[in-house]
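Tutorial, part two.
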Amino acid sequence: MLLVLGLMTKSSAENLVVHPGDSANVRVKRQGPRELAPREGKTASVTKEKAIAIASADVAKIYESIRGYKPVACEKTSLWVIVFDGGDFEYYIDKKTGSIVSLWKLPTTSNPGGGTGRRKTINESRAIKIASEHFGDFLESYGDPKAIVNDYDARPCELANAWRVFFEYRPVPGQPIATLPNTNPPNYVIDKHTGKIIFTTHQLAVTSARQSPR
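Running the prediction step on this input gives:
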């Protein structure tokens, strides 16, 4: 069991709401899951297009204009993450119900306004490697083996100036859901041009060697 991340069921972790970043830069209305679209069938899955429509309808209620913000769909096992690239809003939408689980405001560039003309240097595999290395460092900083990273699948999502990298636990066939070691692993925003981690949900322990004064 992971020392820091703890034991939780998949359903409880997927509905965990975390709002990162400087509160002065976050304009987010906190509400519980909301059903914004009628269900067409109890077992019907929400498509990518439907998820984008749900997120677009809701963000328009919060912000006066989303013109120029491109919706990008990032797929997870039970959620769609709809990122409004340029505005940096992220909607987490339940695939089965269409409910909005949470809304985040994150940075997607380390140099706002300076993205034009910069060469793309970080590809998908490199972004995954950067995120995986930090995930391993995070585990190690809390006394857990780095190798635990190998139990997770990386799910990258490409934005204009950044990579969004999520991790999801890969269950062992037949493993009871109650014994899953963790279903809320770190996720990352990585600058596409520099490889810098702009944001992560999980910080290294302050006692780790990497964060100690040199």
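The first strand starts at residue 34 and ends at 35. In part three we will examine how such features are distributed along the chain.
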